[in-house]
Design a protein that fits this description.
By secondary structure, the protein is of the alpha+beta class. The chain is about 40% helix and about 25% strand.
């Protein structure tokens, strides 16, 4: 599953992330790729991910610093 937050305001991006990540968890997805771009959202995103109750880990993609791979906890 992929979530593209690039170009959104921080508040809108946070709302979309929380909603879609929660939905992915309940739909039994194992991982999500989140595209943030390289601006303000990218700087805040790791904290959002670590605070989300269904996210096990958050890793910045080595080939694209504007995206992250999230591994979700098992349901």
């Amino acid at each position: 599953m992929k979530i593209d937050l690039h170009g959104m305001t921080i508040h809108m991006a946070w709302n979309v992330f929380v909603s879609r990540a929660t939905g992915a968890y309940y739909n039994n997805h194992k991982s999500i790729v989140v595209i943030t771009g390289q601006g303000a959202i990218a700087k805040e995103f790791p904290q959002w991910a670590h605070q989300h109750s269904h996210v096990r880990s958050c890793t910045q993609m080595p080939n694209n610093p504007g995206s992250f791979k999230l591994v979700l906890k098992k349901g």
